[in-house]
Amino acid sequence: MKDICCIGHITRDKIITPKQTVKMGGGTAFYFAYGMNQLPRKIDFQLLTKVGEGAMDEVEKMRQAGIEVVCHPSRHTVYFENKYGANSNNRTQRVLAKADPFTVDEMRDVEARIFHLGSLLDDDFSPETVKFLSTKGRISIDVQGYLREVRGEHVYAVDWKNKEEILACTDILKLNEHEMEVISGSKNPRTVAMQLHEMGVNEVVITLGSYGSLIYADGKFYEIPAYEPHEVVDATGCGDTYSTGYLYCRLQGMGYMESGKFAAAMCTLKLEHSGPFDRTIEEIEDIIRSQSR
């Protein structure tokens, strides 16, 4: 039995920023697994993914880095193009290839206390798959993929199909300020958090970019500060890095405030370069200490 199993597609990403164009692996699964791999091994982690033959080298690289990966075959690997303007909160996306969805059969042999579902597109995880996993452990979801529909190569923001059905099985939900508006029509994170809680979610985590983040759990709000990066290089994977830090702490029994601050500090360090989180727990703790004075 693992403490946490992250389930999601590894992607091929082309990231275009005002400073550079980078081609690399990506997706929630990628950023989450590498982020977890940088932290002290206090929890037992496994990644479950699906890629086409051409991306098996990325899976092997992860295994060589010491990440435990279960990989199922797919006809294609997801291929994203992410383009950022001067403001790193603004991103346009194209999807140049799509992977097969995850199935109930592929989930039969995984055992974990928490399953973190890194959806990238709206059909990655069917309600049946989520329901099946919820009989085996707690469900944590990053909402982003459920709100992305591909038409041609372009990605459109859509409301969440089967929202009520899936949220009824969800214990922890992470979303950002844009996603909360798509889901609820509201710009007020407190209102949205309470609505989602009423639909069955125990811990609602809303990231608000440079304004920090808000956690709603056990009937209370926790306001988490944003820490200042030295420079902003690439925001791709920041939300996934936040989830990594948050769940890493929560699985060790840490409180909401402490877990949120740890996650926020991890994000700050991730913002300073392209690629997954590559720093140390000491650097995370330094940021929290130095910027909390």
UniProtKB/TrEMBL annotation:
Q: Which Gene3D superfamilies match?
A: 3.40.1190.20
Q: Kindly list the GO molecular function terms attached to this UniProt entry.
A: kinase activity
Signal peptide region: none
Source organism per entry reads: Prevotella sp. GTC17254
> Mind listing the UniProt keywords for this protein, alphabetically?
Kinase, Transferase
One record GO biological process: phosphate-containing compound metabolic process
Q: What is this protein called?
A: PfkB family carbohydrate kinase
Ranges for the Carbohydrate kinase PfkB domain?
Answer: 1-276
InterPro entries tied to this protein: PfkB_dom, Ribo/fructo_kinase, Ribokinase-like
Q: Which SUPFAM superfamilies match?
A: Ribokinase-like (SSF53613)
